[in-house]
Amino acid sequence: MTFQEIVEHIKQSLAEEFVLSVNEQASPKCIEVPAEKLVELMAFLQSDDKLYFDSLSCITGLDNGPEAGTMEVIYNLYSIPFNLHLMVKVTLGREKPVIDSLCPLWKTADWHEREAYDMYGIHFNGHPDLRRILMPADWEGYPLRKDYEEQKYYHGVTVKY
C-alpha cells in the first residue's frame, strides 16, 4: 500500500478531519492529525486488517520555541506484516502540552511518553506511571525545551555543562 493509499484509506474509513495535512517529503512520510483524534486514529491504524501497524517504535517530542508557541509529538509506526512505515504528528499548545496516552494500545509507549514528559514537559493523560525517567525526580524544568535555563547547582553541587 502506498502512502497516498494509506491516507485515502484513513479518510474513507474514519473521516476527512482525521488528516490535517500530509508531508510526502518527510522520511518516513508523515500525516498530521488533531490531538483529540489521536487515540481513535491510532487504534484504527493498529487494528485495521489492511494496515496493521503493530509496532510503535518511537515517540519524539519537539519544541518549536516560545515564538511559535507550539510543541509537537511525533509517533513512528511500523506494520511488520505489510512492511509499512508511517509517522503521525500532533501539534500542541506550548503553554499546556497535554495529549492522551497510547499506553493502552502499545506497551512500548510507556517509556517513550515518560521520556517526552521528562525532557519537554508534555503530559500524557491516562499514562499509568508518568514520572521522570532520565532526570532526578526533583529536577527543575525540562532540559530539551528551547527556553530551558540550566541550573547552576543541584543539591549544593555545581552543575557543569
TrEMBL record:
<keyword id="KW-0813">Transport</keyword>
<comment type="subunit">
    <text>NDH-1 is composed of 14 different subunits. Subunits NuoB, C, D, E, F, and G constitute the peripheral sector of the complex.</text>
</comment>
<dbReference type="GO" id="GO:0048038">
    <property type="term" value="F:quinone binding"/>
</dbReference>
<dbReference type="InterPro" id="IPR037232">
    <property type="entry name" value="NADH_quin_OxRdtase_su_C/D-like"/>
</dbReference>
<dbReference type="Pfam" id="PF00329">
    <property type="entry name" value="Complex1_30kDa"/>
</dbReference>
<protein>
    <recommendedName>
        <fullName>NADH-quinone oxidoreductase subunit C</fullName>
        <ecNumber>7.1.1.-</ecNumber>
    </recommendedName>
</protein>
<keyword id="KW-0520">NAD</keyword>
<dbReference type="InterPro" id="IPR010218">
    <property type="entry name" value="NADH_DH_suC"/>
</dbReference>
<keyword id="KW-0874">Quinone</keyword>
<keyword id="KW-1003">Cell membrane</keyword>
<dbReference type="InterPro" id="IPR020396">
    <property type="entry name" value="NADH_UbQ_OxRdtase_CS"/>
</dbReference>
<dbReference type="InterPro" id="IPR001268">
    <property type="entry name" value="NADH_UbQ_OxRdtase_30kDa_su"/>
</dbReference>
<feature type="domain" description="NADH:ubiquinone oxidoreductase 30kDa subunit">
    <location>
        <begin position="31"/>
        <end position="153"/>
    </location>
</feature>
<keyword id="KW-1278">Translocase</keyword>
<dbReference type="GO" id="GO:0008137">
    <property type="term" value="F:NADH dehydrogenase (ubiquinone) activity"/>
</dbReference>
<keyword id="KW-0472">Membrane</keyword>
<dbReference type="GO" id="GO:0005886">
    <property type="term" value="C:plasma membrane"/>
</dbReference>
<dbReference type="GO" id="GO:0050136">
    <property type="term" value="F:NADH dehydrogenase (quinone) (non-electrogenic) activity"/>
</dbReference>
<comment type="function">
    <text>NDH-1 shuttles electrons from NADH, via FMN and iron-sulfur (Fe-S) centers, to quinones in the respiratory chain. The immediate electron acceptor for the enzyme in this species is believed to be a menaquinone. Couples the redox reaction to proton translocation (for every two electrons transferred, four hydrogen ions are translocated across the cytoplasmic membrane), and thus conserves the redox energy in a proton gradient.</text>
</comment>
<comment type="similarity">
    <text>Belongs to the complex I 30 kDa subunit family.</text>
</comment>
